[in-house]
Predict the 3D structure of the following.
Amino acid sequence: MAWYEAAMLMIGGLLFLMFFGMPVAIAFLTINIVGVYIFMGGMIGIDQLVANATTSVTSFALVPVPLFLIMGELLFHTGLAIRVFDALDKCFGGVKGRLSYLTVGGGTIFATLSGSSMANTAMLGTTLMPDMIRRGYKPHMIMGPILATGGLAMIIPPSSLAVLLGSLARIDVGALLIAGLVPGLVLALLFIATIRLQIAVDPEAAPGYAAERASLAEIARALLVDVLPMGIVVFSVVGLILLGWATPTESAAFGALSVVALAAVYRSLSWDAVVRSLTGTLKVSAMMLMIIVGSTTFSQILAFSGASSGLIAFATSFELDAYLVLAIMFLVLLVLGMFMDQLSIMMLTLPIFMPLVGLYGFDPIWFGVIMLLALELSLATPPFGLLLFVMVGVSPNGTTIGQVARAAFPYICCTVLLVVLLTLFPQLALWLPGLIRS
């Protein structure tokens, strides 16, 4: 079978099954069975499929994923995240549009603690949206910042998706986690600038209101009691990796332990919170591991059938400029993001993209950050971006996907601008990893 026929069978068959609503993990498993039967010798190939499945999910590099997930679940269910927002709220006083700024400021902090875009968006929507509606904020000033900041969890460490990307693409996981920190903070600043510009253009979009101004003593107490202790969690995850004292797996374990300890200190570590956190972590982890089982074998079948090498040879035969190839890969990720979840996109594209990264001389860590930004952007890309549906779910009845997409558009432009900046100034992503290596 020619490489293009093999690629059409495997990739086309997978997309066909997903298009008709088959769960991602089952779709991968089904097309893998067909593939190994055709390309790897019938039932002997099926036996090899089972052996490969066991190997793919017993990688030590995947251990941080459930640990980061349980960190976010515990922060949400124990109320520690809410304490951070309440403390920051006192600091903003009566600033015009303060709840939009609070969304970006508090959401960025929570992103560094949770590592989950969906959890970040859902938490911001359920906690801040009702008050913003009551105070007369226009819908785009509510939904836009929440959507934008929700996606920051994908690149600001700890990011469970960055761990998966690093382990699957054979990129240094610790370096990739740290590489997203500076771009993530730059993106948060771009979001703040966007809010300020929107308020300047339409002052009624975020009406001012009289707020009881907290005293300096109250602000200091709120920061010391509710915000500063969260620095322990950030240090446990980011600081230990930066200092070279812990691997990503060890820092994830320290991070989860620090959240448990803080919840116990604040007397919010209830049995109900633990059970709900473990249940949420188990559901997401099981889904991720099932997809990894199918997609890892999918990559191997693509390579065995000659489809991967054929696609790479075809892509490089046009002698395109390296950055044009990068732009094409970015657009492919955006288009796939309209129809597939981010983990499935990684599994489908990495076998083709990573050899191209090597051929065109891109730094793998830098490309990893670019890919994470593309995946973050695809979460808010109409018509099927996952965060759009999360936002509709936490919004008042009658909110449409179109309204949410229009609110997200200025912040999508911010992410595109950051990608351009990273292309022009790669050290934005490579500076901190360089410190670790030195």
The chain is about 80% helix and 0% strand. The CA atoms of residues 29 and 226 lie 46 Å apart.
